[in-house]
Design brief:
- With about 775 residues, the protein is mostly helical.
- The chain is about 55% helix and about 0% strand.
- The strands form two sheets. The chain has a two-stranded antiparallel sheet with strand order 1-2. Strands 3-4 form a two-stranded antiparallel sheet.
Amino acid sequence: MNFNTFINCSLVGLALTTSVAAFSATTKQSKEVRAIIDKVNTYWQSNNAPEVRAFWDNAAYHTGNMEAYFLTGNDAYREYSEKWAEHNQWKGAKSNDRANWKYSYGESDDYVLFGDWQICFQTYADLYNILPDDKRIRRAREVMEYEMSTPKHDYWWWADGLYMVMPVMTKLHKITGNKQYLDKLYEYITYSDSIMFDPEENLYYRDGKYVYPKHKSANGKKDFWARGDGWVLAGLAKVLKDLPAEYEHRKFFEDRYRNMADAVVKSQRPEGYWSRSMLDEEHAPGYETSGTAFFTYGLLWGINNGYLNDPKYLDAAQKGWNYLKNVALQKDGRVGYVQPIGEKAIPGQVVDSKSTANFGVGAFLLAACEYVRFLEKESNEDRAYWVDLLYKMAAPVLSNMAEGNLQKNMIVEVSPNWDGRNKGVTYMETFGRLMAGIAPWLSLPDDETDEGMKRKQLRDWALKSYRNAVDPESPDYLLWRGHGQALVDAAYIAESFLRGYDALWVPLDDTTKSRYIEEFSQLRRVDPPYTNWLLFSSTIEGLLAKAGAQYDEYRVNSAIRKVEEWYTGDGWYADGPEFAFDYYSSYVFHPMYLETLQALKDSKAYTRIHYSNYYNRALRRAQKYSIVLERLISPEGTFPVFGRSIPYRMATMQPLALMAWYEKLPAGLTNGQVRSALTAVMHRMFDDKENFNEGGFLTIGFAGRQPNIADWYTNNGSLYMTSLSFLPLGLPATHPFWTDAQQPWTSQKAWSGQPFPKDHHWGETEKFKDLF
């Protein structure tokens, strides 16, 4: 070994040793934080019965308790919140006399419209999403929808109210689809800003009484109360978690969140806590936990979800956590230094290690759970399994095609009853279907993790492969012309661009983009049969519209009208005029219909069809169908094998994966149970079975090599449809889909005697007329 080789090997070995050591330290730390969560929550629940009123202080604790449940899967936590909800009849303030409902401060049952009585609805909504039952959100909807029917907009006149109620609005919107929740949320916070937001400091006064210069701190400074601003930053994080990406005022909430985070970081004390008067420590000196915990949670949430990328945020969050762990947490599990109930920083008020409160414990749990999500982002076993399996599937295809060698090196297999068409269609099927599945994952930002290195490698290969696919001089120029099958396979390439537009379409050079536009446009020569093929046309045209190219409005709108005619109910589409009992609702209808509509929305197309209305209706159908798919997964992790194209394997689960990636899972399907179910199916299908041939390419079969089940049009390129179930890899590793505890799926619950949601018919009442 020469000297340079020795040095290089030594450096690699040192890097690996350092990486392993860092990973080990992080794993140890995450276990420590999980133990703290259990210690703190067990102490609280052991010393406090759940049968207490639903006022804000108790309800704030339950927002942290439910976060701890989702992270750990500890049923005792969920049961504790359920007992509390049952005790309160799933209500806040209990008056039924709307004529006397009030929204000023009040602790009696007439103050139904006062936000401190509405925070309980957050937990009721969380419990509804676990086990849908109308009684769990009936009162929440009654109260909030009555409130929104009034002309008043001054419901949130104190900073605390923004945490109490803003997340209620987004949670109920997610459940009901009623956009009024979002519009009223924006209307109400705009009023709140007008009376208590300071645009110079990007912080909130507790309410109008404390606005500077009318009110000043002991040293004549602006007096921002830490817990008050903690409520707001945490509330904004919870809002962004559920706010639709396309909501027209989303940027307002993102900007407000980021600007507040900056202000919060600037005001942190060197010891890691935030003083009760944020800009004047001397006003009320000493430790304080509730504001610090809410700030730590709010910062960690932004770090975990890509909003706060500067190292200063992580430094502040870790300092905040170190204070919570080393100062606030007491040996017996008590959370100390919580300022008692109040509305301001009070000079001379005693706040010590014995000062604890329900809302402070809730805030502590929120921060601890979010810190675990951060610490475990590189050690999730389920995600690592998905990544390794998808990389194994993708690498032989993309590494070869990037060099123009796919058609030279791919070991092609075709159906025993192959119809004799040109086998060259295999390569376009392979590439397009694979890219449609991995596009969301490749769209994540680069990082230095093992997963990040694999993702970057695949993206680099993919971009080269995209260029070769349309370069007539490349050996891997695909078979775009001379046959009708190209319409099908081009649609999956178009779909990959729609799913990874910024990461995969935008970086392409102008020549390559022009070539794609030409190839996609010439496919109008293909007259699609009267089946799901209409959506292949519309998906291609949708991409052209999104990319600003000329598109065929008639091909889009006629496909939409036919798909509407073919909807049979409860999430199922017929494949043409006659219903076929197969999985084409999974393979094509739900995803490509939604993506066609979304692309036309993105392009701001104005035609006879109101694309947003159609999209919202199609989304609800996809949610119902995802419920059906999840229920088809047996307790053992299998699903029924029926219909044609069954060698597409996991593509059957595409709509369920799509709803998870969209963050639109319907009530009754939690992140933990859907991930667990899909992972179980992957293990059953791919582990210890002959799914790959000697070249590393997929074999024809369902769970292994089973060529007899192939259809006359099946080649092993067709089978890369299975990648379509990997869409949730497009969610970051810190997302609850990956970090929530494993949960039993519906069939497991049903067959083991556990409660599980009733199923029911999802009817439709929406009928849309042409706009002109």
